[in-house]
Amino acid sequence: MSEFYQHVLVAVDLTRDSGLVLARAIRIARRNQNARVSIIHTLEPLGFAYGGDIPMDLTSIQDQLDGHARDRLAEIADAHGIPREDQHVVVGMPDAEIHRFAGERDVDLIVVGSHGRTGFALLLGSTSTGVLHGARCDVLAVRVGADGEATE
After folding, report:
1. What count of other Cβ atoms lies within 10 Å of the Cβ of residue 84?
2. How many helices (H) and strands (E) does the chain have?
3. CA of residue 132 relative to chain centroid, distance
4. If you average pLDDT over each of 48-57, 71-80, 140-149, which comes out highest?
């Protein structure tokens, strides 16, 4: 095992705090011989969100959500110089998809945001705990304060 991280995965919820968490991960990557940085956002399948009780085809809605997520992720990632091939939107349960992606892509550090009941709590409130407990690599939870600023 190398003393430096080689591949950092940043899991984001697409709020304004996502850029703060990504910026922290990029600083870590630079200190680790310019480790590769990938960014991921996970969409839960609409069937899960609504318990499968809606008797209609949700494919077009899921496709619209996917397109919106890809656009928003690109806004965040492009602003930090993350190449498109390292920007990923996946559908599934967030902690499981993050673990799967990390295992398939030889990620050795996962960075997630964490704070109270807004912003990152929408995606990563319980997900950060799930990512931590199931990860086969290091996990960094970046504390994002109530004012939206990453704390040290």
Report:
1. 11
2. 5, 5
3. 13
4. 71-80
Q: What is the mean pLDDT of residues 97-121?
A: 83
Distance CA 123, CA 144 (A): 14
Which tens digit of pLDDT belongs to each residue from 56-94? Answer: 677 888 899 999 999 999 999 999 999 999 999 999 999
Tokens representing residue 61 in the block? 């809605």
CA distance 42 to 5: 23
Structure-block tokens of residue 141: 């939870």
Contacts 24+ apart (CB under 8 A), 32-36: 32/4, 32/5, 32/6, 32/8, 33/4, 35/4, 35/5, 35/6, 35/7, 35/8, 35/109, 36/6, 36/7, 36/8, 36/86
| One-character DSSP codes across 89-143 | EEES-HHHHHHHHHHHTT--EEEEEE-SSSTTHHHHHHHHHHHHHH-SSEEEEEE
In this structure, is the dihedral angle defined by the CA atoms of residues 29, 76, 81 and 145, taken in order, positive or negative? Answer: negative
pLDDT at 152 over 50: no
pLDDT digits (tens, 9 = 90+) for 21-36: 999 999 999 999 999 9
Evaluate whether 110 touches 76 at the Cβ level (below 8 Å).
Answer: no
